[in-house]
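Pilot study result, target chain (97 residues):
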Amino acid sequence: LINPAFHLAYQSIQYGCAALLRHAGRHLEAGSDLRAVQKALVSNHFPDVLTPDEATMLDAFREPATYPTPDPIKQPPPDAADALAIALTHARRLHAA
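Predicted structure:
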């Protein structure tokens, strides 16, 4: 099974977040903290690089995860920042390939 949060993160990269991720990457390369960049992404603090479609995609990250897990206490669903960390990591791997 594909984790829905990962699938959503992958779709957001595939369908229009490349500019946003490049912008976040510039912040990371400049020494910004990864968690701070993730929070900025989730809260739309980069409006200068967001198209309406990208903003719509990122709105989904603000919604709480609604899929079941085997044990919600031992394995809670990832929050939005975690989903974005997965997306950023995957984007870096694609860029490095």
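One observation from the pilot: The chain is about 60% helix and 0% strand. A full batch analysis is planned for the follow-on phase.
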